[in-house]
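MODEL INPUT / OUTPUT PAIR
PAIR INDEX: 1
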Amino acid sequence: MNDGTDSLPLDVLSSEVGLSTAADADVVAEGWVRRHFAEPSRVEESIELYESMGFEVHTRKPDASEFGARCQGCASTGCESYLIVYTRPRGFVSPAARNESV
């Protein structure tokens, strides 16, 4: 079924389905880009794919505050096992780390 969301950018799609697009500032400052939510059975596949394309991969559980109003009712139970997949270029050095080495 095509509900019109399959071609939307991640930030728009996320807001359409109820997931807040507010990123964790600490994670972003370290160069990580949020790619998608993944159910546990698919996380390894995502990690392998992104690593094969030259990315470092970081995963973490979502915080309840990251879910928009449309998802609040079931997010804590329905998505508690999901992980957020982040990537960044392999060898990325954050601005903070660069400043420390000077």
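PAIR INDEX: 2
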Amino acid sequence: MRRDAETRGHGDMETRAAMNFVRVSPQKARLVVDLIRGRQCGDAIHILRATNKGIAPQVEKVLRSAISNAENTSSDVDVDKLYVKRAYVNDGPRLKRLRPAPMGRAYRYQRRMAHIVVEVSDE
């Protein structure tokens, strides 16, 4: 996971965490990420725990990493005031695969990957 931190002005703290090359379709990951965008971090963790999707534990891991990055970069950050400022999923590379087809032919299909990014702020 990658982490970046920015301090803007006096007191505004933004941190981000990213998980790259996750073996899930970006469309499926966006369904989960859309649930937590703009929410308080505590509420977002509860939502992810209750979400019955396979990608939810990885999104929770990225969110916890962003919270941890905020704690490590600034000593005066209040974790209870953090909220998910931005959360998005980008397309990653695609693995091209072949599936056997009738009469000796082959059909191509793509296994998709995603990059998940979560930014938290205490604004």
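PAIR 2 NOTE: The first strand starts at residue 2 and ends at 8.
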